[in-house]
Specification:
The protein is built from 13 helices and 14 strands. By secondary structure, it is an alpha/beta fold. It has a seven-stranded mixed β-sheet, with helices on both faces. Helix 3 runs parallel beside helix 9, helix 4 packs across helix 5 and helix 10 packs parallel to helix 13.
Length: about 375
């Protein structure tokens, strides 16, 4: 059996090596390293895949979130409602723009933000809701849209972990993650479901106005070279990365299928076990399993990690500290006990290997080791 990886990017690359290498060499041959034709080609392909009107590449997923907030015209002191249980980038950009993050809790089984808590958190200063489609499935966007409409709030979707996931509305309408709110954001960090060979990101919108604004902000606030109408940033998607992503986008559905099959194997192996909880799947969302995250008794997690490590099985904790308790965000005044579900999750979640190249032999070995740990205790 080959060594088990948390994410096996090398094996994935080797399967499409000729296509990837050709795409890279084409960029090198043309020397169009910035704003080369591959960027426009990828954006068009991404628009077609997602069904969104505008897909705009940028340098990384964190920039995408910042640019989205800048495009909406929010001002220092405005409040942005965000789940506390997610990667720090979601709150980081809020703080950098001198906005105020307002943290809310998440569901204990699906890890997405609780709509009722959003409503309770709204004040006269609220301007934006950022739902995070964590681990690969969508938050309850229909409920969140209804709240946003009632209170005249913007929605910026953080779909960094959920590209390819589909949300089904009660009327049967189907929309892609990141393509439902005013602006959506995603990341092409190498380990993501659609990963580059370096950093990269994109923004999605169906608004011509926001698209124009986003393209200007990404390019130093400029629509015409050397003429700057607004404050912007330098956050272009690299041409080499766009060329690589354009190849990998063709395989995204097959990548999702491989992840779903691996998750189904895990689910079946762990069915009926009372010592761990498998990830729940919302009925309104498909799950593309960026991570396969289980919950176990908090007191056993460190021993569990060490046991798997001895067995040659990597695992990760996403995330060990919720954002409202992070040292850098203490000045917002949150304290332990304010958001108890996320605080409990930070001590009980653990993610098992999940990627497109997991073999049945590897999955069987992982599952047997997980069972062995608990049966011996």
């Amino acid at each position: 059996m080959e060594q088990i990886q948390m994410v096996d990017l090398r094996s994935q690359y080797l399967k499409i090596k000729d296509e990837i290498d050709a795409a890279i060499h084409e960029v090198i041959d043309t020397t169009a390293f910035i704003k080369g034709p591959a960027v426009a080609d990828f954006e068009k392909a991404l628009q077609k895949y997602t069904g969104v009107k505008h897909a705009i590449g940028c340098a990384n997923g964190t920039d995408a979130l910042q640019i989205a907030l800048m495009a909406l015209g929010v001002k220092p002191g405005d409040e942005v409602i965000v789940p506390t249980f997610t990667f720090i980038a979601t709150a980081e950009v809020i703080a950098l723009l001198q906005l105020k993050p307002v943290f809310v809790d998440v569901y204990a089984d699906t890890f997405t933000m609780i709509p009722e808590q959003i409503e309770e958190a709204i004040t006269q200063n609220s301007k934006v809701i950022i739902p995070v489609h964590l681990y690969g499935q969508c938050a309850d966007m229909q409920a969140i849209l209804e709240i946003a409409d009632r209170h005249n709030l913007f929605i910026v979707e953080d779909a960094a972990q959920a590209i390819g996931s589909e949300y089904v509305f009660s009327d049967g309408t189907v929309r892609q993650a990141g393509c439902i709110g005013h602006i959506g954001c995603t990341s092409f960090f190498p380990s993501k479901n659609l990963g580059a060979f370096g950093d990269g990101g994109a923004l999605f919108t169906n608004s011509d106005l926001y698209a124009e604004k986003i393209r200007s902000i990404i390019n130093h606030g400029s629509k015409v070279k050397y003429f700057h109408e607004e404050i912007g940033v330098n956050s272009r998607l690299d041409t080499l990365q766009a060329a690589i992503l354009n190849v990998k986008l063709k395989y995204l559905d097959s990548y999702a299928k491989a992840r779903q099959e691996a998750a189904e194997y895990y689910n079946n192996a762990f069915a009926g076990l009372d010592y761990l909880q498998t990830p729940a799947n919302e009925p309104f969302s498909s799950h593309v399993f960026h991570q396969y995250t289980i919950k176990i008794d908090a007191g056993k997690r460190e021993a569990f990690k060490n046991f798997l490590s001895l067995k040659g099985i990597p695992c990760m904790v996403y995330y060990p500290v919720p954002m409202h308790l992070q040292e850098a965000y203490k000045f917002y005044g949150y304290k332990k006990g304010d958001l108890p579900i996320s605080e409990e999750l930070s001590h009980s979640v653990i993610s098992l290997p999940m990627h497109t190249e997991l073999s049945t032999e590897q999955l069987e070995y992982i599952c047997n080791c997980v069972k062995e740990f608990f049966h011996n205790r």
